[in-house]
């Protein structure tokens, strides 16, 4: 989820992996950077797919808590944030970043419970796409906004549908809005916290925010060994692995190429949904995803030319 958040903190993040990750760097150096980005995208969507399978045992809010808690635990160990000497504005940015991350994940997982994964990701992608278009000064970029709107119109359940609901679309739109705020806050956090400690701080705050609702709704089911194992896997696949791969890729490729590859995420999500979850999309829904992917590609390429 960093395709459109790269112009500010990315350069500072390129060397942010800890020294203990030297083995990982050795392995990833043998993989082309485009391959690292695609592996990261697949990892994120696999994590979402496994999380959706947990919905049969736990409500979405409990699954969100498990994912964020696992990510916060791992990142807290790898990149422990230093709280000493922080100004009140640093605290405000870090806490705002964490709360946004919590709401974004809660909204997305609620959307995931009501929509096919490809549709949910496509709608959520409107958040970073909106940030890219809002920063534009070219009339041509209005075309990408229109194309994205066409995609939403094709997704909307104008007729009663068992797989798509207005409530699910609403949750996905909230997640997209939070993703847009996440981009802006990640830039601010990147300037106030060294390396990846800003994200680590935000993940810890996010886990604390989500914990009351997650523990309440999950109850004793959260303590099942199989559920804990899958939750840790979701945290690794959705947060730690893709973020590490993205940082490695950014060391070896231009940011605009990274953004173009990330624009393929909704299509990859739809394929993961088909293969892992058996979610078959109609031709109209595939057309909607293609419209949103095309809008994202256009906005990214236009941003590079500027």
Notable characteristics:
306 residues, mainly alpha
Beta percentage is: under 5%
The radius of gyration over CA amounts to 18 Å
Helix run count: 14
Largest sheet: none
Oligomer: single chain
Low-confidence stretches: 2-21
**CA-CA gap between termini:** 22 Å
> How many structural domains does the protein architecture include?
1
**Based on helices, strands and strand pairing, what is the structural class?**
mainly alpha
Order of helices and strands: HHHHHHHHHHHHHH
Helix fraction bin: over 70%
Number of strands: 0
Described by the principal axes of the CA atoms, the overall outline is: globular
Mean pLDDT: 81
Topology:
Elements: H1 10-13, H2 22-28, H3 33-54, H4 60-78, H5 88-112, H6 117-124, H7 126-134, H8 142-155, H9 166-192, H10 197-218, H11 225-250, H12 255-262, H13 265-277, H14 283-305
Describe this structure in words.
- With 306 residues, the chain is mainly alpha-helical.
- It has one domain (21-305).
- Helix content is 74%, strand content 0%.
- The chain contains 14 helices and no strands.
- The protein has helices at 10-13, 22-28, 33-54, 60-78, 88-112, 117-124, 126-134, 142-155, 166-192, 197-218, 225-250, 255-262, 265-277, 283-305.
- α7 (126-134) packs parallel to α14 (283-305) and α13 runs antiparallel to α14 (283-305).
- The radius of gyration is 18 Å and the shape is globular.
- The two termini are 22 Å apart.
């Amino acid at each position: 989820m960093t395709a459109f958040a790269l112009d500010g903190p990315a350069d500072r993040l390129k060397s942010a992996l800890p020294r203990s990750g030297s083995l990982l760097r050795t392995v990833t150096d043998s993989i082309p950077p485009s391959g690292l980005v695609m592996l990261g995208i697949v990892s994120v969507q696999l994590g979402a797919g496994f999380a959706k399978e947990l919905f049969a045992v736990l409500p979405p809010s409990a699954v969100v808590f498990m994912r964020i808690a696992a990510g916060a635990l791992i990142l807290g160990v790898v990149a422990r944030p230093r709280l000493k000497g922080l100004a009140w504005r640093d605290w405000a940015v870090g806490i705002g970043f964490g709360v946004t991350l919590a709401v974004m994940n809660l909204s997305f997982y609620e959307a995931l419970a009501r929509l096919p994964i490809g549709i949910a990701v496509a709608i959520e992608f409107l958040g970073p796409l909106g940030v890219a278009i809002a920063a534009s000064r070219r009339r041509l970029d209005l075309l990408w906004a229109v194309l994205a709107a066409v995609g939403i119109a094709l997704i909307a359940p104008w007729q009663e549908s068992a797989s798509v609901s207005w409530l699910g679309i609403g949750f996905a739109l909230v997640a997209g809005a939070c993703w847009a705020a996440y981009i802006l806050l990640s830039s601010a956090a990147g300037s106030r916290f060294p390396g990846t400690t800003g994200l680590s701080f935000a993940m810890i705050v996010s886990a604390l925010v989500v914990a009351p609702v997650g523990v309440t709704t999950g109850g004793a089911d959260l303590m099942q060994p199989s559920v804990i194992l899958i939750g840790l896997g979701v945290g690794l696949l959705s947060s730690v692995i893709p973020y590490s791969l993205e940082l490695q890729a950014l060391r070896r490729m231009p940011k605009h190429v990274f953004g173009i590859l990330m624009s393929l995420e909704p299509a990859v999500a739809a394929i993961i949904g088909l293969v892992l979850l058996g979610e078959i999309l109609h031709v109209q829904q595939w057309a909607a995803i293609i419209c949103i992917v095309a809008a994202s590609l256009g906005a990214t390429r236009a941003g590079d030319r500027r």
